[in-house]
Amino acid sequence: MSRPSPKATRLPRVHTLSNGVRVVCDPIDGLETLALSVVAGRGARFEDEARSGWSHLLEHMVFKGAGARSARDIVEVIEAQGGQLNAATGYERTSFQVRALKGGLDLGSAVIADLVLRPTMDAGDLAREIHVVGQEIAEAADTPDDIVFEMAQAAAYAGQPLGRPILGTDASIAPATPGALADWRANIYAPDALIVTAAGAVDEDELLALVERDFGGASGQGPAVPTPPVFEGGAQSAVKALEQANLVFLLPAVGVRDEAYFALRLYAEILGGGMASRLFQEAREKRGLAYAVDAYSETYADAGLLGVFAGCAAKDAAELARVAAAEIQGMAAGVEAAELSRAKAQLKASMFMSRESPLARAEQAAGQVLLFGETLRPADLAGQIDAVTAADLEALGATMLAPGRCAVSVLGPRAALKAADAFRQALFG
C-alpha cells in the first residue's frame, strides 16, 4: 500500500504578521477556483445594549463604499472576474468571503482589505442603510421561524448580549453616526482578531505577500473578551394568527472548547438530527404530531445550547412538548450502540463532505484558529468523535438537566401557549 505524500497530509500552518493578523493557506490540488475568507473574531456578543446590532449594521455599511470604490464598483470588480462576494455577522465573528477563479486572490484580498480597513462611512449612506436594516428587522418579525428562535434566545440569556438579536432593534441602531460606527469598526476589526484564510487554487507564498501588503498596516486593539454567559431560562410566548404553532425548547449545554463538545453534537443528532432520530420517529412517524421536528446544538466559545424546534397544530403543542421532554430524558438514561454508531457516521460524513468546499475549508480554518490558535487535523477530529461513549452522552444529559432550568418559546394560536409549562413540568416536575 502506498503512503500518502507529506504534502497531502500536512496540516495548514498559522502565520502571524507583526501586527497580530494571522494567515492560513490550504491549497487543494486539481481545483480551478479558490475561496478567500477574512474573519474578525468579534460580533454581536461584544456589543452593549446601546450598540445592539451595530456589528451587523457595520457589515452592511462597508459595502456602501470602501477605499476608492463605490458600492457598485465593489461588487462589479469582483463579478467581472467571475467571482462572488459575501459577508455575514454572528455573535462571535464577522466574516467576509470571496469565491473566485484561479488567479483571483490578488483582487479578492485588495477588495476585502478595503471593506475591513477603509470603508467610506458616508452619512447619507448610513441613513439609508439604517432604514434598510430596519426593514430586515421587520421582515424577521414577520417570519415565525425567525422570531421564535429570537424569543428562545432571549429567554435563555435574558439581559445579556447572547440574548439580544444580532440585527439589533430600530431603537438601538438609530443613534449610530459615521464617526461612532468608524470607532466601532476599529474595535471589532482590530488586527489582533483578524484571520485571513484561503483554500483551493492558492499558493502560500502569494497569499502571505498579499496579506502583508493589504493587512500588514492595520493597527489597533479590540475590546476585552466578554464574560461567560449565564443560562437564565424561562419562557417567552406570543399569540399570533398562524396556521401552526412554532415551538423551541432549550437546555444549557457546553461550548466548543469543552471536552464534551462532540458528545453534545452526537446527543443532538440522535435526539433529532434526521429521519432515523428519536424525535422524528416518535413525534412524527408514530404519533403524527408534527411535520417538522428536529434537534440541534448551538455552541459558542464558552457556552452552548441543546435545542428542539417543532411546528405543529396548536392543539398538539402541549403533547409534543411532553414528547420532546421524554425523549431528552430518555437520552440521558442511555443510548443504543446502533444509534450512537449512526450518529457518529453522520457527523463524520458532514465534516468530511464540507471539506470538499474551498469556502467551508477556509471558514473552518479561521474558526479553529480563533478558538484554538491552530488548525486541526480532520482525522484527529474524527478520532475524537469515535471516542465518545454512551456513558459520555448519559453524563452530558445529566449535566444539562441538573440545573433544573430550560428556556421555551411558543409562537402561534393561544391554544399552543400551554406547551411551555408542559415541557417544564415533564422535565422537572
Question: What secondary-structure arrangement, pairings included, does this model have?
Answer:
Layout: H1 6-9, E1 14-16, E2 22-27, E3 33-40, H2 54-61, E4 65-66, E5 69-70, H3 71-79, E6 84-89, E7 94-101, H4 105-117, H5 123-141, H6 144-156, H7 170-173, H8 178-188, E8 194-200, H9 204-215, E9 234-239, E10 245-253, H10 261-272, H11 278-286, E11 290-299, E12 304-312, H12 317-333, H13 337-354, H14 358-372, H15 378-387, H16 390-401, E13 407-412, H17 419-428
Parallel strand pairs: 2-8, 9-13
Antiparallel strand pairs: 1-2, 3-7, 3-8, 4-5, 6-7, 10-12, 10-13, 11-12
Helix pairs in contact: 4-9, 10-13, 10-16, 11-12, 12-16, 12-17, 13-15
For the structure shown, list the relevant keywords.
Cytochrome Bc1 Complex, Chain A, domain 1; alpha+beta; five-stranded mixed sheet; 19% strand; 2 domains; disordered N terminus
Question: In a few lines, what is going on in this structure?
Answer:
With 429 residues, the protein is α+β, with helices and mostly antiparallel strands.
